[in-house]
Design goal:
- The chain has 329 residues and is α+β, with helices and mostly antiparallel strands.
- The relative contact order is 0.15.
- Strands 4-5-6-7-3-2-1-8-9-10-12-11 form a twelve-stranded antiparallel β-sheet, with helices on both faces.
- Helix 1 packs antiparallel against helix 3, helix 3 packs parallel to helix 10 and helix 8 packs antiparallel against helix 9.
- The chain has one domain.
- Strand 4 and strand 5 form a beta hairpin.
- The longest helix has 22 residues.
- It has ten helices and twelve strands.
Length: 329
Amino acid sequence: MINQFNIWVSLTTLCFVCLGDVSAGPLQKKHVAGDSKWLLHMDLDNFRDTRVGRMAIAGMLDEALAEVKKETKLDLGPVIERIRSVTIYGSDLEQEADFRGALLLQADAEAIQIFEGLLAAQSLGESRVTVKKLPDGPNPLYSVGEELFVEVEPGHMLVLAKSRKQIDRAREVLTGKVESLAKSGGFTELLPEVSPFFFLAVVEGLGKANAGPPQAKVLQMADGGRLMLGEIGDKLVVELILKARSTDVVGQIQAVLQGMIALATLSQSENPELQQLVRAVNVKSAGNRVTISLSYPLQDALNKLGQEIGNRTPSKSPAATGDKKAGRN
């Protein structure tokens, strides 16, 4: 699916570490195709207001910018500060299948104008990745490297897809010609109404998917699932919900997960830090759902993130403090 094209990965990574003081980050169901089987959504407005987000921004922004510039020859520094949200959705779960879906990038008017200007400039010059402006279509449309299409939509949005057909369909969802999640009721049991989380992943049809390592086979016992990440108070919170067909299957999933946690606790007896993490995992069930949650001390998470980032951007370390405006221009 998403890992089939490197440019998407680079752009998505860049979006995840962007800066800015803009809003409108929550998921908009009217923008997502009603027959979607999975979706990923990053609320960048929420993310940039978290301590984890500010540290990630300060430590990873320059590296992400350099990677995108290497792949596309585009200098996106002026535009990323105004990106509001990123949503990716698809209608199949098979890894070997051609990707069928779209990436939606929401920003403000100036950011979209800059982005389109960069694409237009690339189409007139020479670069390692060929950018062409396509003459036909209701909105400005570009092809990038013959394997990625980018369309500028009304409402300050970019749509990225692997084919012209998928661009057309994503546009029809946005204009109401194709049913969206807002009308189809897809993911009804999994999408949160209100959420303090900055990252959301939802999938239906897990039991039918022929994917995943052996360690993840427990997921195939479920019909669907939801993963959310957020920062609440002094905790970094991770919540995974698995939906099953019956309470019997719920009991099986819960037993498997609790056994895995117990085994991990025993096998990591010489690693107190990992033991502490495993013991913080809570598994509970209600109705046809199993909820796996983890509340991890925020300061510990920041320390680990800081270790990963290292000394790459020491001048931006104030973003790790409690000041919400740290690291912003």
